[in-house]
Amino acid sequence: MSVLDQLNGSGIYLICGGIVLFIAIVCVVFLVRAWKAGKALGMDTVRMKRAITSSATFSLLPSVGILLGVLALSGSLGIPWPWLRLSVIGALHYETQVADAAAEQLGIRLGQDPMTTQAFATIALLMSACIMWGMILTTLFNKKYLKKLQGKDPAAKKIGGFGDLAMVAMFIGMVSAYLGSYIGGFVSGNGRFTFSGSWTPLLVAAVSALAMAGFTWLSEKKHWDWLDNFSIAGSMLLGMTAAVLVGH
Fold first, then answer.
1. pTM greater than the 0.70 cutoff
2. Which pairs from 81-88 meet CB under 8 Å and 24+ separation?
3. How far apart, in whole angstroms, are the C-alpha atoms of residue 4 and residue 11?
């Protein structure tokens, strides 16, 4: 039995499914408690129902992007583990990037090279350890952060502005690093213009960027605010479509 078959085994499904079920139950419990708290505060029942319905509706299409992430990782890591990661605390851009970076350092390519037990253990450990700091920092500093959100901290505006700039700079750096690696691979290779080589990721990045720019323009200029919920999933779908068309 291969490592991938073991990762798709019933035991892994049972473990991961049990954790996902527990999280789902917690969500239901909080939903019920929030409903009771809203009624205790005298909130309009019709508006609360409308808020629940709209939230559920606008969660469907963005979740397509999460499903795409599970499918993209399932070929190398099996279905249960990506399903668990992206259902509980993981983020689509984080999980895929960390898994790919860890695999690259181990000398394997996700989706192409066979998975080994050592490689999976390393990838799974990094995917879990690198994202747990959000929970730790929230536990230690959430109270102070809430004061900033509520305007009780005089330095909140300055820190908030720096946080926004730091987040944008971080994502620009990540995108530049990934695109730079593919450009470097093309330059250091034979230098021929081939879509089957290093140019395919660059084309996908360009199509996805143009799609996101289009969604942003429609949202800001045409005031299609609802489109914000679908921009990531839509950009991913268009980028993947471009990769399939070029590959065939």
1. no
2. 81/7, 81/12, 81/16, 81/124, 83/16, 83/20, 84/16, 84/19, 84/20, 85/127, 85/128, 87/20, 87/23, 88/19, 88/20, 88/23
3. 13
Evaluate whether residue 238 is within a structural domain.
Answer: no
Structural domain range at position 106? 1-131
**How does pLDDT run across 96-132, given as a tens digit for each residue?**
878 888 888 888 888 778 888 888 999 888 888 888 8
Distances (CA, A) of 97 to 131, 167, 233: 12, 16, 16
Please say if the pLDDT value at position 59 is more than 80. Answer: no
Task: Provide the domain count of the chain.
Answer: 1
Report the C-alpha gap between 70 and 64 in whole angstroms: 10
Q: Is 123 inside any structural domain?
A: yes
Other CB atoms within a 10 A radius of the CB of residue 216 amount to 14
How many angstroms separate the Cα of 154 from the Cα of each of 127, 160, 161?
Answer: 36, 11, 13
